[in-house]
C-alpha cells in the first residue's frame, strides 16, 4: 500500500474492484480498508466507486470503506444494499 502513502489511488480502486468477488472475508476487509484510505485522499472517486458497487459489494468491505463518512452517507450506502435485494 505504499502507493496510497504517496497519494496514488488508481491501483487501490482497481485492486479493490478485482477483490470484491473473492471468497475470503479478510480479503474483503482489506479491500474496504484500502478503499477507505483512498477515499481519504480522493473522496469524490470513492463516492463514484460506491455508487457503482455498494449494492453488491460484501458488507465488511462496504462498512470499512464508509467508516469515515457521516451518518447520513453511511446510511445511504448501507440502504442501497437492502433495496437492491428486494424483489417486487
The radius of gyration over CA amounts to: 12 Å
Number of E strands:
0
Count, helices: 6
Biggest sheet statistics? none
Shape annotation: globular
Structural class determined from secondary elements: mainly alpha
Task: Give the tags.
88 residues, mainly alpha, 6 helices, 0% strand
Can you put this structure into words, describing what you see?
The protein has 88 residues and is mainly alpha-helical. It is built from six helices and no strands. It is globular.
Question: Any chance you could write out the topology, listing elements then pairs?
Answer:
Layout: H1 2-5, H2 10-19, H3 25-41, H4 43-53, H5 59-65, H6 71-84
Give a summary of the structure in a few sentences.
The chain has helices at residues 2-5, 10-19, 25-41, 43-53, 59-65, 71-84. It has 88 residues and is an all-alpha fold.
Amino acid at each position: 500500500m505504499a502507493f496510497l502513502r504517496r497519494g496514488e489511488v488508481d491501483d487501490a480502486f482497481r485492486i479493490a474492484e478485482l477483490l470484491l468477488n473473492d471468497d475470503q472475508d479478510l480479503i474483503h476487509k482489506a479491500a474496504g480498508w484500502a478503499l477507505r484510505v483512498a477515499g481519504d485522499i480522493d473522496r469524490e472517486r470513492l463516492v463514484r466507486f460506491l455508487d457503482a458497487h455498494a449494492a453488491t459489494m460484501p458488507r465488511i468491505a462496504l462498512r470499512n470503506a464508509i467508516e469515515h463518512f457521516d451518518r447520513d452517507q453511511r446510511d445511504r450506502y448501507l440502504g442501497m444494499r437492502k433495496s437492491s435485494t428486494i424483489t417486487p
